[in-house]
Each structure stands twice: as C-alpha cells, then as structure tokens.
Amino acid sequence: MKKFELHGEYQHNFDYKITLKPTDKCNQKCWFCNEYNNQSNDWTLSDTNKVIQKINDIIFNLKKQKPNYIIYIYFYGGEPTLFKYWEYMNKEILKIDADNNKRLMVIQTQTNLSLSYNRLSNFLHSFKNNEKNRIELCSSYHVGYQKVQEFKQKLDLLDKHNANTFCFFSTDHTQESLMLSDLDYLKNNSIIIRYTLHDKISRNYDYTKYSKHKLFIGKNEEQFNFDIITDNNIKSIINYKDVMFLRMNSFENMKCDCTKRNLIIDNNLLCYSCMDYQKKSMIGVSLDNYKISDYMICEIKECYNGLEFKKQI
After folding, report:
1. Which string of b and e fits 254-267 if b means at least 16 CB within 10 Å?
2. What φ, ψ does residue 228 adopt, rounded to 5°?
3. Is the dihedral of CA 31, 193, 4, 204 positive or negative?
4. What letter would DSSP give residue 313?
5. The whole model's pTM is what?
6. What is the pLDDT of residue 203?
7. 193 versus 274: which is more confidently predicted?
8. Average pLDDT, whole number, for the chain?
9. Which residues contact 93 (CB under 8 A, 6 or more apart)?
C-alpha cells in the first residue's frame, strides 16, 4: 500500500487536534482496560499553565495560516475529571483568541461520568455553546461501577446543555443479566455498543447471540466504516475493525502527516504526534522542545489511533 487517506464523514474536519492527558489515574479499573496508572503524577498548577501557554502558541501560529481555523482539544486519561484543574483548563483554553469570530474551538472530554451530578451541572452552567465554542463530553458506561439511574441523569443533563456526543456502552458477558437490564434503561439515549472480551474467561466469546436482541439494533463500534483512497486511487469502504486488526494495517516507514495536525501531551509533560507512540512508550519530546513539522516517518507497524491522518510512501 502506497497511500491511505480518509474521505467522507470520517475525514477529520479540524485543522489541529491537541490531546491532553493530565492524569493517568482512573477510579473504575475496568478489566478490559490498561490505560491507567494510579501511581502516576498529575499536572501541577504550574504544569497546567505551561500547557495552556503551549496551546496559546499553537493557536496563534495556526491563526497566521488560517484565521478561520478549527481547533479540537481532547481531554483523555485515565479519567480526566479526576484532575483537579479540569474545569480551570476548560475555562482558560476557551479564552484563547476568544475575540476571533471566524474560529471554532471544540473542547471534548472522554469520561466515565463518575463525577457527581452537581459538579457536572456547575461545570455545564459556566459555559454556553455557540458557533465559536463547543464544550462536549463523550462518555462511557461500565456495568457495575455506578448506578445506571444516576448515569442516565447525567446523560440527560448533557443533552439539556447540548454538550453530549454519545455514550460508549461496554458489554460485559460476565454480568449478562445486569448488562441487558442497564442497556434497556439507557435505550433512549445515544448509545454505541463497544464489544469487550474477558481474556480470562473467553477470548472468543460469541456476541452474535445478541444480534437479534431488540436492544442491540442500531450502531455498534464494529460498524464504523472508513471511506478511504488507497494507492490505486480507487475509493473503497473498509471496515474499522478490518484496519484495526491488521488485515490491511502496515504503515511502517510511511510518511504520516499527524505531526502537522496532532499533538498529545501526557501527564509527564512529554509530547507525541501520535497516540500510538505514546501508548507504546516511545520516547516523547519535552513540552519546551516540541515543534510542529510537516510529517514524520512512522516507526511502528500497527496504526490504531492515527488512522485519521494521511499516510503515503
């Protein structure tokens, strides 16, 4: 393969994306997840202000090239709402270039919605989404970690403030009865099914038995398709799962333009252009020394989180 590029609805519509990982801590410890470390450090207030200044610098450099830019800020973890300066960062980032009526800033947090209803309510009441600014939360529900009734109240609150994207509902066949009951309770919300497998019990558990269940009619994560152009310039539909699980995942030594569109800053203030590099513990660059470049030569074969970026020989 000589070229890989997303088109259509899955092509990113932002000019630059900054993923913020201020903490690696999580309060749920789901059995299928290894993206947390409860012994790790969080950003201090000083660290937080350094990151805000870096975002400021990136935005004003971007503005020189394109005044009507779209900037996407993404809080990730761990569980980002465990970070004590989460609210503060949202407010301060929104102030950057706030007088520019041409720009759009989207700040999204990926969260398990374990924060209290009152804290969420206070947070949402401090913002107003409009054509220049959007505050969004993308949630995930994990069976048995909070009462589904309380979770739904928070989902409904997000809807009320036009701040809800969707909720990933993680399946758990080890708690089948409770899982189906919770899913039934949330059936009127915007839910996407995330199929999870418990390696200790059954690596190849068959979820197809649910496929005709009334609750499983609709979108699930495996149904996401990429509309791509490959090296022969023939447009084709490739299933997300097919790419993820290596049926056509061979990007090593290809040029990737993630470096001019993407930045990840982890809880140690190390910077990466690709989430896959960060997750594989590749060497990051210090916040002070990180510079935007046109492309990088990918050193890893499997691309999971950077599939939205153009790749070519």
Report:
1. bebbbbbbbbbbbb
2. -125, 165
3. positive
4. -
5. 0.86
6. 46
7. 274
8. 82
9. 52, 55, 73, 105, 107
